[in-house]
């Protein structure tokens, strides 16, 4: 039903929103994903009525039947995106159309109805507009948006559900890593893989992240910030981190990132970096890169930098890599003149309206 018209949104403002002084205190130093805004968006779907009951309302708990399909068969997808405040006033979304397309692709992979692109963009815009006071104006602050959809039909049987609930919630955030953009350490998992060919690796669904948690816990036990997953077949090709894509920067200035083969999430930050890097004259190749080559190139000095990227962290340089065979580090240049930091500045300047948008990526909300 992707061609159906978007239902009109009904707005029910919160009768007791958070007081200005309390909100200001919360925004001064928000922990990532712990503080939430006053409102949320809900849209319902069933196979007979299609998308309906689009509502902006007070954020509240949702009621669910214990036999709801999402609780038993994990029909669930989500997105992660941000709204940014502009220096002269107003707010923008960054590439919401790309999030909308990926959300629809994830829905198709999980046998869920595709939310039309205009409905997706309108839903996040409505929430940003009504909760505009929650957008942090502190350096590096933004409003993290979490659109998601769950199967709500109550039944016990393995089949696609007929009823779904789409929602958007928002959380004011600062830096994803407490240390800011300083280099992170990563652990190469030899015990776990994130996705296999034919699986759900390219979909943004909760099951992928749940399956990554033991490996992430393993990484933390080793004193690392993140886990690196290898391919499921040969266990040697670098794929991605627990929640981020990865890039490698060589001494000739070229970049390599693992190709989208169906097992890697097609990151919007990843795609933006490829575009910006190529526009600046850098050679970017999407090709397989093995963990053995990563170590050899780092030790020889051929590999100058490695960095992870994603909506939450933007760009995080990788300083140290650990696995059962020991550890190695990148011969990164000074933080302020690295390729990673240059790309981060270019990207964040676009996201915050400080640079001209040559790509049509910035969507103004108000």
UniProtKB/TrEMBL annotation:
Q: What positions belong to coiled-coil segments?
A: none
Entry-linked Gene3D superfamilies:
3.30.470.10, D-amino Acid Aminotransferase, subunit A, domain 2
EC primary class? transferase
E.C. number: 2.6.1.42
Q: Does the keyword Amino-acid biosynthesis apply?
A: yes
* UniProt keyword annotations, A-Z: Amino-acid biosynthesis, Aminotransferase, Branched-chain amino acid biosynthesis, Pyridoxal phosphate, Transferase
Instruction: Kindly list the residue ranges recorded as spanning the membrane.
Output: none
In terms of InterPro entries, this protein maps to: Aminotrans_IV (IPR001544), Aminotrans_IV_CS (IPR018300), Aminotransferase-like (IPR036038), B_amino_transII (IPR005786), BCAT-like_C (IPR043132), BCAT-like_N (IPR043131), BCAT_family (IPR033939)
Chain positions with N6-(pyridoxal phosphate)lysine modification:
204
Cofactor(s) recorded in Swiss-Prot or TrEMBL? pyridoxal 5'-phosphate
Recorded hits in CDD domains, A to Z, give: BCAT_beta_family (cd01557)
Recorded hits in PROSITE patterns, A to Z, give: AA_TRANSFER_CLASS_4 (PS00770)
Highest taxon of the lineage: Bacteria
UniProt keyword Cell wall biogenesis/degradation, yes or no: no
| SUPFAM superfamilies membership | D-aminoacid aminotransferase-like PLP-dependent enzymes (SSF56752)
Give the reaction(s) catalysed. Answer: L-isoleucine + 2-oxoglutarate = (S)-3-methyl-2-oxopentanoate + L-glutamate; L-valine + 2-oxoglutarate = 3-methyl-2-oxobutanoate + L-glutamate; L-leucine + 2-oxoglutarate = 4-methyl-2-oxopentanoate + L-glutamate
**GO molecular-function terms, A-Z:** branched-chain-amino-acid transaminase activity
Gene Ontology biological process terms in this record: amino acid biosynthetic process; branched-chain amino acid biosynthetic process
Pathway assignment reads: Amino-acid biosynthesis; L-isoleucine biosynthesis; L-isoleucine from 2-oxobutanoate: step 4/4; Amino-acid biosynthesis; L-leucine biosynthesis; L-leucine from 3-methyl-2-oxobutanoate: step 4/4; Amino-acid biosynthesis; L-valine biosynthesis; L-valine from pyruvate: step 4/4
What the entry lists under NCBIfam families is as follows: ilvE_II, PRK13357.1
Q: Which family does it belong to?
A: Belongs to the class-IV pyridoxal-phosphate-dependent aminotransferase family.
The record's function comment reads:
Acts on leucine, isoleucine and valine.
Protein name, as recorded: Branched-chain-amino-acid aminotransferase
